Amino acid sequence: MKNLLFIIILISQSILSQSVFDKANNAYKQGNYQQAIDSYQSILKSKKHSSGIYFNMANCYYKLNQVAPAIYNYEKALLLNPKDKDIKTNLEFAKNRRIDDIKIVQTVGFEKLFKDITNMFNYNTWGYVIIILSFVFLLFFIGYYFSETTLAKRIFFVGMFGLPIIIIGAIFSALLEKSNREKFNPAIVFSESSSVKTEPKENAQEAFVLHEGTKVFILEEVDAFSKIILEDETEGWIYKKDIKTIK
After folding, report:
1. Burial letters for 208-220: b for 16+ Cβ neighbours within 10 Å, e otherwise?
2. According to the model, what pLDDT value does residue 114 have?
């Protein structure tokens, strides 16, 4: 009986969320962007998250020329759906409205190749890759054991020798990707103008100023301050209240 009641509640919540989602979409089409935002936020408050909700809400903020919330919600959508081209395109449009022009430090050579390989998949996907490779290794072992010809045994033996190296590389990539995600906690500057200091102190010297919509990465936190690093590798201390974490 309890299970049946739970299922009924779950279905009714799903129907209600879809109804609110449709209502929000209609409000957006009619140009009632703030009304649409309110409806999308009501869905999020019910713990129902999706890249579509964040994407549509970001579009509303973009139409209202609210740079920081637009970029923030595009980033949230991209976090849930990193392959979506529409999200990436609209995010770039929103970034063009920022005041700060932060140049991304480009990696080259072996470092770039290593970084590209590591960032091919997220931590969970690397886990699936490792499982599949391990299964393939088992198939090669079985093939080697039951092969009757010398050529077949050589092929399976080479596979058995090479796969462990690839598996170790995949494990290392997964751990490194996870470490980078935990180390660099992304956030968006929401304050119209925020002073970045050299130390986590009220009276510390100002290093530079950031404006709304700029993306930063949190390294650590001390009292009311967060130590951040920018995409050009510049570091400083910013007030926690001036930024909003994406994750």
Report:
1. eebebbbbbbbee
2. 65
pLDDT of residue 9: 39
User: What's the pLDDT at 12?
Assistant: 41
Contacts of the segment 243-246: beta carbons below 8 A, 24+ positions apart: 243/187, 243/188, 243/189, 243/190, 243/191, 243/194, 243/216, 243/218, 244/68, 244/72, 244/187, 244/188, 244/190, 245/185, 245/186, 245/187, 245/218, 246/72, 246/75, 246/76, 246/79, 246/186, 246/187, 246/188
- Tokens 């703030």 appear where? 34
pLDDT at 108: 59
Paired with 218 in beta bridges are: 185, 228
Write the DSSP assignment of 77-146 as a string of letters: HHHH-TT-HHHHHHHHHHHTT-S--PPPPPP-HHHHHHHHHHTTS-HHHHHHHHHHHHHHHHHHHHHHHH
Rounded to 5°, the CA angle 125-172-121 comes to: 25
Options 3.40.50.300, 2.40.10.340, 3.30.365.10, 2.30.30.40; which CATH number does 185-245 get?
2.30.30.40
Task: Write out residues in the chain with pLDDT < 50, as ranges.
Answer: 1-17
pLDDT at residue 159, rounded to an integer: 84
Q: Is residue 196 within 8 Å of 210, Cβ to Cβ?
A: yes
Helix, strand, coil tally for the chain in percent (to 5): 60, 15, 25
Domain 2-95 CATH class label: mainly alpha
